[in-house]
Amino acid sequence: MSENQVPEEIQESAATEAAKLGIGTDEWVAQHEERIARKKGIKGLPQLINESIPAWARWGVLLLISFAFGAFVDNQYLLRIGVNLGLFVMLSYGLNIVMGYAGLLDLGYVAFYGIGAYGYALMSSEQIGHHWSTWLTVLIIIIGTALLGYIVSLPSRRLFGDYLAIVTLFFGQVFVQLVLASDNITFPWAEDYVDITAGANGIPGIDPFSFFGHKFLNIRDYYWLLLVLVALLTIAISRVNRTRIGRAWRTIREDALAAESMGVMVNRLKTMAFVTGAAIAGLAGAIFAAMQTAVFVSGFDMPLMTMIYAAVILGGSGSLAGAVMGAIVMSVLPEVLRVTNYSEILFLAVLVLTLAAVGKSVKRFTINIVGIALIGFLVKILLGAASIKTTPTKEWVVGPVSRALSHWMYVPLDRVLWGNCAFVILIVLIAYFTTTTPRIKSILLPVIGYLGIFLWEVRLVTDVNTTRQLLIGAMLVVLMITRPQGFLGKARVEVL
Amino acid sequence: MSEKKPLLEISNIDTYYGAIHILQQVNLRVDEGELVCLLGGNACGKSTTLKTVLGMVKPKVGKIMFAGQDVTHQNTPARVKLGMAVVPENRRLFAPMTVLENLKIGAYVRGEAAEEDLERVYDLFPKLKERSSQLAGTLSGGEQQMVAVGRALMSHPRLILMDEPSMGLAPKLVEQSFEMIANLHSQGVSMLIVEQNANMALSVADRGYVLQTGRIVLEGEAKELAGHEELRRAYLGR
Ligand SMILES: Nc1ncnc2c1ncn2[C@@H]1O[C@H](COP(=O)(O)OP(=O)(O)OP(=O)(O)O)[C@@H](O)[C@H]1O
Ligand SMILES: [Mg+2]
Known about the structure:
Chain A is mainly α. Helix content of chain A is about 70%, strand content about 0%. In chain A, helix 13 (about 300-315) crosses helix 14. Chain B is of the alpha/beta class. Chain B has a single domain (about 35-55, about 75-235), classed as 3-Layer(aba) Sandwich (Rossmann fold), CATH 3.40.50.300. Chain B is built from 10 helices and 10 strands. In chain B, helix 3 runs parallel beside helix 6 (about 140-155). Adenosine-5'-triphosphate binds near residues 47 and 196 of chain B. Magnesium ion binds near residues 46, 47, 89 and 163 of chain B.
């Protein structure tokens, strides 16, 4: 055996270290990389928090915070963010079953959300003139989306990976197109055309939920409903994940053929994953429609899909706590970024974190920060000496951060032009950065940092929507580089 | 082993991969409690035979009887439920899952894994007990082999199909794994073992078959085969 080639004392120390952690020697060796990564502090922080606090305590604290939020927050806007977060968590949970556990790349997932929402809208508004009881409607929606999930799962029996992705993507688009086109349907027996979905205009005036004579008129009602639902789902899904069903889902993700030879009924389990995920999304859609009292098909298209996928992947595919974390980031962050003051601070936080992650040691980190500062002063002094005109400070300063930066940052007259130039240069530099030697990297890093701040202050701060997308994208890229397995996901192991 | 009751009987099997004819008129039998080995060189169709038995590939003609039932048209999970279990070529463990989870998956067709079944596997492989929370992908090759065998045992199989259990193991471990196989055999477990290591396989088996380009060319008692001139020349060493 090759073990004999490892010096005795090394083997022994590995064994004792492993024993301390209560794991085998081989696993200790296999975790080597991960341990190194962990020692770097910031990168390993989510994992560290995750491991040092027991699961029940983590969930308990989360529940307590959510409870306090619902009990004490009166601001309608904040409550709405809370409700959106709840819906987002539900969607992430559902996708986590389909994609995280069973490993099925379902790109049409968000359509089930839309079907739930439109289903509720059609059964509870003047659109067709039905106002059915909430109980009945919700029941029909859960069963209906589950059935649809079953139908969509049928091709998944033969398809894997990218093929399945294409088919489900198609399904999602068919839903959108059908809703758009169903405002003008002519039946052979009817003279006039029939308007079922109102097309792009959406359906307004949807009834709120009503249980036992209690109408959900306050947004807080939905908040409580979602809190209960999410809590129940958390318990149910983590239970299922520990049974043979959950295990079997994960074996399918890893090696469907081997799973089948162990007696796992692969097709049935794939279908179960699809059906469960679809029903959860459908229910979330119904709640969304009732809460919003209006639905528009554009809200159930690719942008939302990417956000849900980002949440699940960001949190660590296959981890429920990770799904919650991803949902918080992806649903609360865009709201925070709406406010310029916050987004400025957040931008700097992301920049500092990036530098910390790339820089690896405190010394390097300091050098980078000082380097960026020096470049800033240098540019300002040089261009000032050449008496090149700048934009007056008060014209571009928008928040506390930019006020502080105004003594340091050079801002050209034509901000759009120079901002765009900086953007192109920045991208080229980053691309070059990833391929070059460590020495050039260390020189390049402060330049990239400076250009990033320049681009941000000169061009992006005033352009809120683009900024949000860019910032989220940048965060995802940074995360994927530093923690490819997501916040709480497990690093992958391969059998060699 | 006084009276012979056939457990597995495959008759006149022809298996194709697309247009390629792999197995040709293969007949093979494993009796209750018997250890049968299937020998042959590379690419002669040994793994294909196991896959056909398990239902991973369907034969074009022929019949497969298992435990008194015609299973020719049943799918793999149904056959596993009837009592087949496999230790696949290269083990095919579920790498990011723990040893314990891998073992429990073996009991999938029986429902939730019973504690005493786990204990039985741990008795056989004490090392797995201390490694139960380790990820299977991080085990050494020998340990992975133990998990693969343990996983197969978890379903209380009537017949274990093993595809090259000695593959990738050091000589000492090969010996150990055949000791383990002989040990299981003495406990009355029926096995069909595919091997390249003919010497080893014949030393523990009751009977053997030799496959050559998809045809059974030799069959007989293990002792007989071990002394067979032609086989000697072909496989058992110069
Ligand atoms: N899925 C497949 N599609 C096409 N041909 C295949 C397939 N699987 C196996 N074959 C071919 O069938 C033949 C027999 O393969 P098989 O795996 O049964 O060989 P084997 O006897 O187990 O060999 P080894 O000892 O090397 O494992 C080989 O020529 C192989 O290339
Ligand atoms: Mg083979």
